[in-house]
Design goal:
The protein has 65 residues and is mainly β. The chain has one domain. The chain has no helices and five strands. 0% of the residues are buried.
């Protein structure tokens, strides 16, 4: 997990990234891989501002059934 919210231009840039891998306990390994990401730029206040958000997800695995 990685996240931060530094000041950027006239606002704030929030970013987060999560990577995960799981491979147990099955005879045929799951080889589960997950990626999550978030990116948001916000400027101003709630009453007088805006934000732009992008989210991403990917998950892959071998089914054991």
């Amino acid at each position: 997990m990685l996240a931060n919210a530094p000041k950027f231009h006239n606002g704030q840039l929030l970013y987060a990234l999560e990577l995960s891998h799981y491979d147990r306990p099955w005879i045929s390994p799951d080889n589960y891989k997950k990626y999550n990401g978030a990116l948001r730029y916000s400027e101003g206040t709630n009453a007088n501002g805006f934000n732009i958000t992008a989210l991403a997800y990917s998950g892959q695995w071998n089914s054991t059934d």
